[in-house]
Structures are given as C-alpha cells and as structure tokens.
Design a protein that fits this description.
Length: 269
C-alpha cells in the first residue's frame, strides 16, 4: 500500500515537505544575515537591538527565547519548532489523520502539539507516522471501544457493568455551555467501531460527533440523529445515546468479552 497516496488524500506530502525545506533555507539565510549585521555593528561601535523570539503562542509551556542571534541554536530551534507544530497541526486537520486515531491517541497528539514535542515535518516522518497509525488501527479500534465502555458512568441502570445495552448515558457531553471534545471523541470511537463492524468505510473525523452536536445546538435542538444512534442531551450536560443496530452492539460486546472474559461469564452465572 502506498501510504502517501492512500492515507493523505487532501494534502500533497511532497509539496508540504518541499515548502518546509524552502522555509528552513530562508530562515538559515536570515539568521546568517542578522548575525553578520550584529558583528558589523559591534565592530563599527554601532548599536544593535536585542532580539526576542517568542514561540509561546504556538507551543504551550515553552518559554520565550530572548537574546541576540549569536545564540544561533536557540533561535533556530524556536523557529523550527513553530514551523513544525503548525505544519503537523495543519496536516492532522486537513488530511484525515485523526480518523485512524482513538480518543487516547488524539489526546496524546494534541498534548505533543501544545508542547511543541513533534518530529521534523519531513516526507519520511509523515509517511512513517501514517504507516504506524494505519498498522495499529485495529488495536486502536478495540481500545476505543473499551475506553468508552470504561468511562461510562455506572450510576445509571442502562449502563450495565458487563456489556453495552440498548442505551447508554454519557456524562458531560456539554461542559460549561460548550460541546465537550473529549466526549465527542469517544463517541467517534463508537462510530468507528460500528462502521468497521458494519463493513463500512471508517468515517472522516472532520464530520464526526462534535460537528453533529454543534450543528444541532446551533439550530437550538436538544437531540440529533446518527446512522447508528439517537443522541439527546439535557440541561445538566449529560446525554442519552440510544443504539439503532442491536446486532452491532452485540459484536461490540464480543470485543469486551475478549478483553474482560470474566464479565459476561459472571452475568451468565
């Protein structure tokens, strides 16, 4: 399989990597010129400003790099970090990369982006990342089902501690008046599970549960329909998810029984 062609349909990896290389080349040239200008100014007893590089707006928790451009490594590192963080963020959003990731993997990537902890945005690294995600999609698929199951609240009779039932209740679909990304990511995990079990293409995350809920709320609705479930939310922020395909729910329960073999056995006893 050609990972670049099959998994990155809306973004040219080659073009993106070439553009990054062109930007890096110009950054190096600019730093060289600034360094040269500073040395000339000092030799001529002229002034030269103290330059500040601030990448905190792109990388949470990263301190500003202050000082002159003589500290070449710090300056270059700060600039490269911002370039790569924004590039990976764009790639993940526009390429459908997140489609293959469960909620835990998305949280990990979001944290890496926020902290500026990303690999260089090269064609090789992009392809390796996609290949790794594609290769583990089965594991992430099952992990997503289990994570959503484990995060359900057992305060409600419909959420049985040994299997998915006809309906589940999720907490904090709405948080502080906003749609909760974490919860909609978990719903996307369930949608992905249903699609795989239903032999349908894996859905694009850009048209996932977050958009479904947000669009309904914008229309002042308190419920919405999906091909696999009916979703209704309440003033306390919690939501009812009523499944439409009981045969697919049973297949998900088989996944749970594989990872928690004693649970369904306990129900039988």
């Amino acid at each position: 399989m050609d990972t670049t062609t099959d998994l990155v349909k809306s973004v040219s990896i080659t073009n993106l990597a070439n553009q990054r290389a062109a930007v890096v080349e110009r950054v190096h040239a600019a730093l060289d010129l600034l360094n040269e200008a500073e040395h000339l100014a000092r030799a001529a007893h002229l002034g030269f400003p103290r330059l500040v590089l601030d990448d905190a707006y792109a990388c949470r928790g990263r301190p500003s790099v202050t000082g002159d451009y003589a500290k070449r490594d710090e300056a270059e590192g700060a600039i490269m970090r911002v370039i790569d963080v924004r590039g990976w963020s764009y790639l993940m959003t526009e390429s459908g990369l997140r489609t293959f990731m469960d909620a835990r993997a998305r949280e990990q990537w979001d944290r890496q982006l926020a902290e500026g902890d990303v690999p260089k945005l090269t064609a090789a690294n992009i392809e390796a990342t996609f290949s790794q995600l594609y290769g583990t999609r089965g594991d992430m698929f099952e992990r997503g089902v289990i994570q959503c199951f484990q995060r359900l609240s057992w305060d409600y009779k419909t959420n049985q501690p040994f299997k998915f039932g006809k309906r589940i209740i999720v907490k904090r679909l709405l948080s502080d008046g906003c749609t909760n990304h974490r919860v909609t990511d978990e719903l996307d995990d369930l949608v992905r599970a249903f699609c795989v079990l239903d032999s349908k293409p894996e859905p694009d995350h850009r048209h996932g549960a977050y958009s479904l809920v947000s669009d309904a709320r914008q229309a002042r609705l308190t419920e919405t329909e999906h091909a696999y479930f009916h979703l209704r939310w309440f003033k306390n922020g919690n939501a009812h998810v009523t499944f439409k395909r009981p045969e697919l729910v049973e297949k998900m329960n088989q996944i749970l029984s594989k990872h928690h073999p004693n649970a369904l056995a306990a129900e039988t006893r």
